[in-house]
Amino acid sequence: ASYDMGGHDTYMHKEISEQPDAVDRVLRGRIDDRFNTVHLGGLNLDPREARGIRRVKILGCGTSYHAGLIGAGLIESLARIPADAEPASEFRYRNPVVDPDTLYIAVSQSGETYDVLAAVQELKRKGGRVLGVVNVVGSAIAREADGGTYVHAGPEVCVVSTKCFTNTVVAFALIALHLGRIRDLSVAEGRRIIEGLRKLPGQISEILETEGEIKKLAEQYADAKSMMFIGRVRGYPVALEASLKLKEISYIHAEAYPASELKHGPLALIEPALPTVAIVPDDELLEKNRAAMEEIKARSGRILAVAHREQEKADHTIVVPKNEDELDPILMGIPLQLLAYHTALALGRDIDKPRNLAKSVTVE
Ligand code: AGP
């Protein structure tokens, strides 16, 4: 399919820019201000069933897996149900124990990724209950699942996913809030998250306005042969996704580590030629993240921080607006999409068609 680029040079740029509207769409019509909850009829879960869920297992590939990691964190913190995410193909090949009290969630932009579809089919064959968090309406995974929710990102043409990642994470926040309010999340806490969700489109627009600064930073770091991305807990999947984005379109090698793991090995790599992007939200882990930056500085590593205020330990800081702690990862991912974009542009890459990659991988 080909869609109008609407004045943008690439689909990637167009899709990054569409995020305020896309997030508005995934929220629309779903928030219940009377009970401070969310309506997601497509989940086909009645409250009694929802209370019986003992675990949540999220499956996806690539960027959708990363969105699932953030989703698992949201479900654990808001609904207090143990949750984790795993690459769909790994799950399928380790002959998983399929448990009737586990809610399985398959995540996919295209809804056609073979490894995810095969995992869904394997789960259903073993009697598992599977929901889909999918962008393309009527796609194979959406049809196979027992229910689910569409993320309403709109058509995503660029091979690398941006707006769909953001919308998928917002969809997980809605699912987490929905499950949380059926279980133990209070009215006041429900209100707090709803207010945070409503701020997202405006805050994303604010971040997009800083593109000029991010472009300058990208040009300064584009000479790196390799880059390190670090974060902790909620920030770690943001680091994983940002490093994937950079690899896919700039071909710069990148790896993501939990900041706490640096001292267990990767610190040996740190030197001026290996810059680090650090995810540093103003939350309970701020001091820990600062300590990690200090360790990097002591080895003369360059640091670009994404934070809620200027970080004196970093060489440069991209300041993003603060939301509720649980929703911060959504915003912290956005400037790093632009960083990958402008790095690839500075290196003259074919951004919409990176080498060796296809938009959806429908074979094993
Ligand atoms: C995203 O930038 C990637 N090109 C890729 O990792 C993608 O997310 C993955 O192949 C899964 O695709 P899906 O969401 O359509 O299932």
Automatic annotation (TrEMBL):
Catalytic activity: D-fructose 6-phosphate + L-glutamine = D-glucosamine 6-phosphate + L-glutamate
Swiss-Prot/TrEMBL keywords: Aminotransferase, Cytoplasm, Glutamine amidotransferase, Repeat, Transferase
Active-site residues annotated for this sequence: 359
Record carries keyword Transferase: yes
Start and end residues of each SIS domain: 45-185, 217-354
Class in the EC hierarchy, top level: transferase
Highest taxon of the lineage: Bacteria
Coiled coil feature spans: none
EC number: 2.6.1.16
The keyword Chaperone is assigned to this record: no
Location, primary (coarse class): cytoplasm
GO molecular function terms listed in the Swiss-Prot or TrEMBL record: glutamine-fructose-6-phosphate transaminase (isomerizing) activity
Subcellular location: Cytoplasm
Residues annotated as transmembrane: none
Assembly mode: Homodimer.
Role summary: Catalyzes the first step in hexosamine metabolism, converting fructose-6P into glucosamine-6P using glutamine as a nitrogen source.
Name of the protein: Glutamine--fructose-6-phosphate aminotransferase [isomerizing]
Organism: Streptomyces zhihengii
